[in-house]
Amino acid sequence: MDTPNRTQKNLTLLVLAAGIGSRYGGIKQIDGFGPNGETIMDYSLFDAVRAGFTKVVFIVRDEILEVVKEKFEPKLKGKLQVEFVIQSLDKLIPKEYQNAERVKPYGTGHAVLCAREVINEPFVVINADDFYGKDSFASVANFFANETSGAHAMVGYTLKNVLSEHGSVSRGVGEKDDQGFLKSVVERTTIVKENGKIIAKEKDGDLELSPDAPTSMNFWGFHPSMFELSAKMFNEFLKNNHNNIKAEFYIPLIANEMIAKNQGKIKVLGGGNIWFGVTYKEDKEEVSSKIKALIAKGEYPEKLWV
């Protein structure tokens, strides 16, 4: 493994691993995809270490806390400081807004807020079940090593490259300005390929999307200054949505508010050259094949943690 550049500022990786995986039909965060049973998270952690990250925070559900600890603590000892945070249905939810009928967590924005107590430095948010590639980690680490103005970041992926052949996907579809900063990002929860076009299924009807749109795969870089605005927004969200058991507080909602209120710029970074993920069980074989191909090219060792 490459030696991390410890001259960089402290940088934390926040791994969102509390999802239920209802469409996958299992706990995809800890399922094995590599030749020795490596999870997708293993590859992200490996890439983070070689990019110079100094800490990892796992956001998990209480039911999988012990298995995630058992799987990752021994591998990461001496490489990264490790923290675990529970995202529960009642964490940060005032009693008057708690809903006994709710079964799913409140989404990615809520997950980030759950980690507020253990993060005081710039941090990068990723999904546990997405494979982002080493360039994305190097890109965001370089951004924060040189960033002095307090800007945030999003690694941009090209929409046509981040769809599934096996069903609809949810993506944050973005637009950037001439300086490369994000103008807006919209969470499109049902994107499909139909008749050679990329279509978002919306309440108001079908919306055709540009295949080259910069897309969020939930690879964000934030300064901890974002927590204050996020907390205010989440309280407002709960006030308006506590009776809706399916409402989710997404990171793109925070990003848009930040931009709209001039409370932070978000640079769209390069480095999003490779992505694959698992939404459906049918994706597993393809993901494993792609990992094998990267190993054959020398991008990763056959055994990550030796």
From TrEMBL:
In terms of InterPro entries, this protein maps to: NTP_transferase_dom (IPR005835), Nucleotide-diphossugar_trans (IPR029044)
Lineage of origin: Bacteria, Pseudomonadati, Bacteroidota, Cytophagia, Cytophagales
Coiled coil, from the record: none
Family annotation (Pfam families)? NTP_transferase
Protein's name according to its UniProt entry:
Nucleotidyltransferase
Superkingdom of source:
Bacteria
- Residue ranges of domain Nucleotidyl transferase in the record: 37-188
Looking up Gene3D superfamilies in the UniProt record yields: Spore Coat Polysaccharide Biosynthesis Protein SpsA, Chain A
